Amino acid sequence: MTSTAPPTTPEGRKAQPDHLGHVIFITAAAAMGGFLFGYDSSVINGAVEAIRGRYEVGSAGLAQVIAIALIGCAIGAATAGRIADRIGRIRVMQIAAALFTVSAVGSALPFALWDLAMWRVLGGIAIGMASVIGPAYIAEVAPPAYRGRLGSFQQAAIVIGIAISQLVNWGILNLAGGDQRGKLAGLEAWQWMLGVMVVPAVLYGLLSFAIPESPRFLISVGKTAKAKEVLAEVEGHGVDLDTRVAEIKEAMRREHKSSFKDLLGGRFGFLPIVWIGIGLSVFQQLVGINVAFYYSSTLWQSVGIDPSSSFFYSFTTSIINIIGTVIAMVFVDRIGRRPLALIGSAGMAVALALEAWAFASKTADGTLPTAQGTVALVAAHAFVLFFALSWGVVVWVFLGEMFPNKIRAAALGVAACAQWIANWAITASFPSLSDWNLSGTYVIYMIFALLSIPFVLKFVKETKGKALEEMG
C-alpha cells in the first residue's frame, strides 16, 4: 500500500489533508447557489403547458413569462460583485437564498400572469447573484493546490440542479395522475413544481451561516485577525499566516480595476479580443441549448408524446448533460479548449440536422412517425451531450483565461451580459418560431452551430497551458 504526499502550490506550500474535508464542505455549501441556479433555470420546463392553459395565453405572451427571468439574471449578475465588495460574500449568498425562497413561494401561489412574471424576475435576480458569487467565493477560500477541482463544483452543481428539477417535476406529475393541472392538496401540479424549490433555497440560506467569510473580503475591510483564522481553517495551521496575508494584500494592491473604457478601441468599438469573447458567449446560446431545458416537455408533447413520458425524457436529457459535463472536465486540460469546441460544434450540427429532418415529418394530427420519433429523441440527447462536453464548459474556461489581466473583469462582465441577452432572445422566440415551423427552427440552430466552427478556427486562440499573464 502506497501513500502520496499532498500536492503543493507553486510557492511550495502543502495543502493540509486534515482540512480538506472541511474545505470540501465549505465549497459544497457555496455551490448550493449553483444548484439553485440550475434548478430554478429549468424547473419552469414542467409548468409551461399548464401556465398556457391556466391563463389562456398565446405563444408570444407565454414566451415572455418564461424568458423574463433572464432580465432578472442580468440584473443580479451585474450587481452581485459590487454588493459583495461592500457587505461580504456570505451576505450576498443569504440575500440570494431569500430571493430564491420568496420567488418559489410567489411562483407557486400567483394571482395572475403578471405577478407570476414578477416572481420569475426575482428568481432571476437570485440566479444572477448565485452565478457570480459562488465561483468568486470558492476561488477565494480554496487552497491553491485544489482550486481547479474545487472550482468545478459550481458547474457540477448547476447540471445536477437541472437534473433534480426534472426528476422532481416527473415525480409530481405522476402523483397528479399525469396531469400538469391535476390537484394535489388543493394546488395544481405545476404550482407544486415551482414551489418545491423552497426546500433547497432554505437549505442554501442555512448553510451560508455555517461557512466562513472570504479571507480576501475580511482583509479588504481591515479584519486581518479574522482573516488569519479563516486561512488557518481552510489551509491548515502549518501555513505562515502573516506571509499569506501579505500575499493577498499585495495581489489586491496590484489589481487593476478595469472599467468599460478599457474595453474600447479598434474600428468596431470594442477591442478585438472583447468581440471574440462576446462571439463565444453568443454562439453558446444561439445553438438553442436552453430550448432543451426550458421547453423540452412542451416540445415532446407537441409531437404526440404523453406528458409523463415527455417529463421523463427531460430528466434523461439532464442526466446526459451531467455526463457530458464530466467528460469536458476530464478532457479540457488534456486535449485543449479549441479541439473540444470544434468537436462539440460538429456534433451539435449533425444532431440538430437530424432533429430538423425528424420534425419535418410531423403528421396532420401533430405526431411523428415511429422512425422519425426515435431519431428525434436520440438526436436531442446527442445534441445535449455534444454541447455539455464542449461549449457548456469550454466557453467559461475561455472567458476566464483569454482576456489580458488589465481588462479581464470588465470584459467578463460584457461577455456575460451578451450571453444573457442571447439566452433571452432564444427563449423568448422559440414558442413563436415553433408555431411557425418547428423543423425550420432547428435548421436555424444548426446554421449557428456550423457558423461557430469557422469562428473558432479563425478567431479563437488556444489558452491551454498558458499563464494568465501571457494573454494579450
UniProtKB/TrEMBL annotation:
NCBIfam families: SP (TIGR00879)
Family: Belongs to the major facilitator superfamily. Sugar transporter (TC 2.A.1.1) family.
Gene3D superfamilies membership: MFS general substrate transporter like domains (1.20.1250.20)
Primary location class: membrane
Origin organism lineage: Bacteria, Bacillati, Actinomycetota, Actinomycetes, Kitasatosporales
Xref: PROSITE patterns: MFS, SUGAR_TRANSPORT_1, SUGAR_TRANSPORT_2
Span of domain Major facilitator superfamily (MFS) profile: 26-464
Source organism: Streptomyces chrestomyceticus JCM 4735
Name of protein: Sugar transporter
Membrane-crossing segments per the record: 20-39, 59-80, 92-113, 119-138, 150-172, 192-211, 268-291, 311-332, 339-360, 375-399, 411-430, 442-460
Signal peptide stretch: none
UniProt topology in membrane: Multi-pass membrane protein
Cellular component, GO, one term: plasma membrane
Cell compartments where the protein resides: Cell membrane
One Pfam assignment: Sugar_tr
Keywords per UniProt: Cell membrane, Membrane, Sugar transport, Transmembrane, Transmembrane helix, Transport
Entry-linked InterPro entries: MFS_dom (IPR020846), MFS_sugar_transport-like (IPR005828), MFS_trans_sf (IPR036259), Myo-inositol_Transporter (IPR050814), Sugar/inositol_transpt (IPR003663), Sugar_transporter_CS (IPR005829), XylE-like (IPR047984)
Molecular function, one GO term: transmembrane transporter activity
Highest rank taxon of the organism: Bacteria
